[in-house]
Write a structure and sequence with these properties.
2 copies of one chain form a homodimer. Chain A has 14 helices and 32 strands. The first copy, chain A, is α/β, with parallel strands linked by helices. At the A-B interface, strand 2 and strand 32 of A face strand 2 and strand 33 of B.
Chain lengths: 496, 496
């Protein structure tokens, strides 16, 4: 059918069977600054009861943005929010008040410390959903977790929404968790204390995704980024474990030119980096890539010329924040790093990873989420992602802590299945997963501290009398998911 | 319902009304190199009759990848391909043979030169769909144009698919058209003649989107990037037009600190950049941003300190290719630059843009696609996008060329509607759109060469005797779309 469109041209509405919509008019584009207050931004994004608000955790224990946002939500009289943060820390203890006031009633995301303790004893309206870094990215991508409003902390942003964590007084490193939220959330608010001239010189989040830029007095205290799991140990027993990890990598033939390694956070993993750096120098080996979180330890290896590339998704200390300001390198957002639904990830080439545990069991299953008393006190982080990717996945832990057996018959909560765990390195020897016959063959003549996992468990039980009874309720307060979205385990209420 | 999952944990399949899928097993991730031949990559991506293959045009008239790919398609015995390139040039003349052989039977994308001439006379199975840069990005994003396989030329790529156009012997600048294809195509093939060690140091395309890396002997001849529309004019009449554009910007008050400007390709637009640079220096003005394609002219202004930021999506000459290798600056992919469905774009802040035309009419409508004989010989590029964004949109053209009136009653084909065009600058004066009363008010006492568009048309008709009759058929061979997806105009077959 011929019709005259708004430009006065005679056009057909169907051509060769393809339908066309006639032009209805053109107008000049107008833009106005997106800068406003946090409360106003939330209001303009249509905040209402029951919505899901997402946050990243890259200011870690120095983050003020989650608390400030929930304060604004409360002032706006809105309730029943689902928190979809990538992680909560001690600084987020006020979340407990927001839960008690009904502002927050569900959480999907990692919880560390006090909020986890509280939730373990006081079930929310539905269980806390714990996912790995890659698993969370995939859940947002597939729509399993849909943020209505993504609230993204930035240490600098321009008035149109281009935003970064690299520069500014409260710089915390590149924003790397929030790209998927920016892409899939219905609304996006960048929260910053530092509105810079357009265009912001780094743009981990781009204006094309941003509805509003909320200007606040302070996004956080970056000196508290280095918290808890990001401090190196000085305990001789743990240092011995770290050293044994490097011996195991070496015996297994991974310490050679071109190796790709990752360190988890946690004191022993960090100490391993120190010893690995020394070993690379001793053997004059040049690794190809270090992946994961940046620390001074890894940057030192890089500066000494013993690793060619730093492929990082987080920045764990002040030194590293300054380093990336001077030499950006290869920041990889969490999707590039670990999205299990992608066609290729930075972790796919991993040779070795050293990860922590709150418990391991005789099937090589690992728990990092709950303590042995059942309390949910930690997130999954990249544990599952890297464990399933690395050619040599090492878990470190003492055989027991005080009266609690760490190596045990069955983990209290399952985080990472034994199928992807290759070795447990403890203060009383190294247990290699019997499924890895090839690995055992390679290292058995080179290491004199190999033991069976049952032996380790027996020693733990002898020293402690075995696991204590724990007092759990029937209510499920949380679940751990495998990064493919399936249900690994359930976490029960802890009775006071 | 309680069930035992593959890790031996007892879990519920419904908790608080939410359904969960029990864990079914974990396995170690394995990866192999993605490098293979182009034919094999196409085969493994399931190439079959009727599929849509997309390409970028950043090697312009030096591109070998479109022809090589169609050769491989032909050898595989596959037909009825829809080409969804961002643009074709003279180098793609062999596409005519592929059309005649039935390998290609539809095109959605810009066509410049011989293929356009051919298609104008030999209709394809459905009309060629012409979109602006931003319009094409949006069409892929919304699914209106769905590439089955995205074929992405790269001057360097690693074996996992991280790819760039910035480095390598055949570097052509950052890949900026293909991100949306990588994101939405079912399959992605990176084509390179330069497989570099992992990780590729620049990554405009990331491994997460890439199925295969096709290794070919040569992706193209980057010396031919600077072709046709990217050479500055030396015609005194055109230089005068360019100079008048700068006078108009100045009279309208746009040449001041913080201005944001863009130049289209094309000889006059480029000359305008030269004069604008001189004016910025004379008046000691520092612009904030130059957007669009990089050329030596714009880089000279930057190096002289008269524009603070270069926000670029294309690189138009060899000098600029080298420049971005040394100083990356702010490359913006085409989505960031111009996606009309986004929440903010680099062009949204444009003060001025200078664009070309094959014809303009007394309603200030602009044609850049067809010549006055009806032949489809050019693409839309960023014409519509920037025209609708800029506060001052200037179109330049001579009043007539030889015996053909360029300013006329009605354009042969509508590319950009007069509603977003502010001024036509010609060799016989400047016509300002009467809708822009504010602009007329600002400049009328400062410029002595203002004329009405009707006057320009009359002069053109007096000199040429008016538009020649053209001999068109009934078949529609192409359509122009506005960047919102609506139908601006139809293009009819030209009879020989």
């Amino acid at each position: 059918m011929k019709t005259k469109n708004a430009a006065g041209r005679m056009v057909e509405t169907t051509i060769c069977g393809i339908k066309f919509k006639p032009f209805s008019g053109a107008r000049k584009y107008k833009y106005t600054s997106k800068v406003t207050s946090l409360a106003n931004a939330l209001k303009k994004c249509g905040l209402k009861d029951g919505m899901t608000l997402s946050f990243h955790h890259q200011l870690r224990n120095g983050d003020f943005v989650v608390n400030k946002t929930l304060e604004a939500v409360k002032e706006l009289g809105v309730k029943h929010i689902k928190l979809a943060q990538t992680a909560l820390f001690n600084v987020h203890t006020p979340v407990i008040d927001f839960i008690e006031e009904g502002v927050v009633d569900r959480i999907e995301g990692s919880i560390n410390g006090p909020v986890g303790d509280y939730v373990s004893k006081n079930p929310l309206n539905s269980p806390v959903v714990l996912r790995s870094h890659g698993g969370r990215w995939a859940a947002v991508k597939t729509g399993e977790l849909h943020p209505d409003i993504a609230v993204i902390a930035a240490s600098a942003a321009d008035e149109r929404g281009n935003a970064t964590g690299i520069i500014g007084e409260n710089a915390f490193g590149p924003i790397s968790y929030s790209q998927v939220d920016a892409l899939y959330a219905d609304h996006v608010i960048v929260v910053t204390d530092n509105v810079v001239d357009y265009p912001c010189p780094y743009q981990e989040i781009q204006e094309r995704y941003v509805d509003y830029v909320a200007h606040v007095d302070c996004i956080g205290d970056p000196r508290k980024i280095m918290f808890g799991t990001t401090k190196i140990t000085d305990d001789p027993m743990k240092l011995k474990i770290a050293h044994d990890c490097v011996d195991l990598m070496d015996a297994a033939g991974f310490i050679k030119n071109g190796m790709v390694f990752q360190s988890g956070a946690g004191g022993i993993s960090l100490a391993t980096m120190k010893y690995l750096g020394e070993r690379l120098m001793e053997k004059n080996v040049i690794a190809n890539c270090a992946t994961g979180g940046l620390t001074k330890l890894i940057i030192d290896i890089y500066k000494a010329g013993h690793v060619k590339h730093l492929y990082y998704s987080q920045v764990f200390d002040d030194y590293s924040v300054k380093f990336v300001q001077e030499e950006l390198g290869l920041p990889a957002d969490i999707g590039h790093y670990a999205d299990p639904t992608s066609k290729g990830r930075t972790i796919d080439g991993l040779d070795t990873v050293v990860l922590g545990a709150t418990e391991v069991d005789t099937d090589f299953n690992v728990n990092v989420n709950t303590h042995s008393d059942g309390r949910l006190l930690h997130g999954i982080g990249g544990h599952q992602d890297t464990a399933a990717a690395a050619k040599l996945t090492i878990i470190t832990c003492p055989v027991y802590r005080k009266t609690n057996p760490i190596v045990r018959e069955k983990v209290t909560t399952l985080t990472t299945p034994g199928d992807v765990v290759d070795a447990i390195v403890t203060n009383e020897g190294i247990a290699i997963n019997p499924r890895r016959k090839d690995l055992i063959e390679k290292v058995k003549d080179k290491l004199d501290n190999l033991v069976s996992i049952e032996d380790l468990k027996n020693r733990a039980y002898e020293a402690t009398g075995g696991p204590a009874e724990i007092n759990l309720g029937d209510e499920i307060i949380g679940v751990t998911k495998w990064f493919d979205g399936s249900l690994l385990d359930v976490i029960y209420r802890v009775r006071d």
